Amino acid sequence: MTVNADFASARLIEILSAADIYHRSKGLSGCDPRLFWSFPAYKNSLEHKSSMASLLRKIETLSYTVFPSLIDLYKRVNNIENVVSPYGVSIFIQAYVLMYKIHQDQAYLDVAIEYSGVLQKYLMPTPSGNLGVSSPMEGSSGVNLPGGAEAALGMLELYDITGDLKYLCIAEKIADSFFLDFKIKKIENRGACLDYSVAQDGRYVLNANALAIGVLNEVSLRNGNAKYRSLIADVLDYLIPYLELRYMPYSGMEDTSSTKKYDVYHTGFTLRGVAHAIRGSTEDQSKIQSLLIEGVARMRSDFLDKRKLIKALPTRPIKDVHGVAEYIRTLSALDFSANDVPVFVKNIEYMFRDGTFFYQRGFVDSHRYMPRWGHAPMMLAIASLILNLRNISN
Fold first, then answer.
1. Fewer CB within 10 Å, N side or C side of the chain?
2. Could you give the 3-state DSSP secondary structure of residue 32?
3. Whole-number Cα distances in Å, 34 to 84, 151, 168, 256
4. How far is it, in rounded angstroms, from Cα 73 to Cα 81?
5. How far is CA 212 from CA 19, 207, 242, 295, 316, in A?
């Protein structure tokens, strides 16, 4: 399976343009898997830990997976409205900055700047007086590492392209929140791990920690402040043993409440976050760099089926839009190869229809507009891929 770089770039620009037009027609509000947490059985399973609650949740999830048309009906019955996710707005900002780089058209940068204003309205004050990102409908207790990380990365993209210090200031306030508002759990001889949220949740989520220290380092590279250095090193010490595993789990062994599953998106988040965390380091990071390349190789091995379609989980055939986007983002950032381009293009084509993207494909296809989960990450992944293709063509 081969593809000409110029042809691939032209087709990807066509898809990205269609996705841009579709998004602007629909706006920032849309469906999100996080809304499913408000479905009755799912919500009950979060509040009451029992085998019966778990079973009812699985039945509910299976019902709208097999019959995706039920999602909209179920939302209406339960008075669940579409949402604007600040996490999603952050990813759109990154996508539009890259689209500006591709086209050198001020209109795309104007959208990114407009969305930065939207994002700032959703940023929440944290106990330390800094800023954080919460999941929709969760309030200040839902301020979490991954949402904040993508917001900070969006602000840093705008700072890099405009030189406007206000964007760096916002990224610094998010980074300072990671440093001051999230409980740091020291682990003897194994470094440290941050809570997932400001709610003292006691979790050990690998990808969230990787994304957080990635932001801490990226901010430090721009403002020259080394105050995060010790925390970055401690969290890296915690993460390294998991980077060495054949199947990297979602959470560390100390975590008794989170899943240990191995999936494509959280693996990508972890690898991408660690890559940010060691960028520009003056120390020898060859071991970690080797582990990142090994992790990417495992992604190529574990998350492609026989048709070269990207799977969300190694053992399940379901193709999830977020997994496809993260696979492309991670490989594009860490180990871009022209040999991957046909796989990327095939999967983008497979998930794309009528200006937007399937939520999931597999036994049953679910085609719906999901700004945070699908549309924004795919636009960002496609834009990243186009820029890489230009590099190999030049």
1. C
2. coil
3. 11, 18, 29, 22
4. 11
5. 29, 9, 16, 19, 29
pTM exceeds cut of 0.90: yes
Q: Nearest CA to 264 among 219, 231, 303, 215?
A: 303
Q: Which residues contact 191 (CB under 8 A, 6 or more apart)?
A: 233, 234, 235, 236, 237, 238, 239
In 10 A of CB 142, how many CB atoms? 18
Q: Is 305 helix (H, G, I), strand (E, B) or coil?
A: coil
**Mean pLDDT along residues 283-287:** 93
Instruction: Give me the amino acid identity at 292.
Output: L
| Nearest to 384, CA basis, from 341, 355, 353 | 341
Per-residue tokens: 315 = 């053992």
**Burial class, 26, CB count within 10 angstroms (exposed 0-12 / middle 13-18 / buried 19+):** middle
Token readout for 137 is 């409908």
Tens digits of residue pLDDT in 168-203: 999 999 999 999 999 999 999 899 999 999 999 999
Q: What is the token pair recorded at 276?
A: 């940010």
Is residue 380 exposed (0-12), middle (13-18) or buried (19+ Cβ within 10 Å)?
Answer: buried
**pLDDT attached to residue 1:** 47
Taking the CA atoms of the chain, what radius of gyration do you get in angstroms?
20
Please identify which residue in the block is written with the tokens 């190529």.
300
Q: Which two tokens stand for residue 332?
A: 């594009």
**Residue 21 CA to its chain's centroid (Å):** 22
> Which DSSP string corresponds to 193-258?
EE-SBTT-----BHHHHHHHHHHHHHHHHHH---TTHHHHHHHHHHHHHHHTSSS--SB-TT-SSS
Structure tokens at 292: 């990142």
Six-digit token pair at 344? Answer: 């990327």
Q: Name the amino acid, one letter, at 307.
A: R
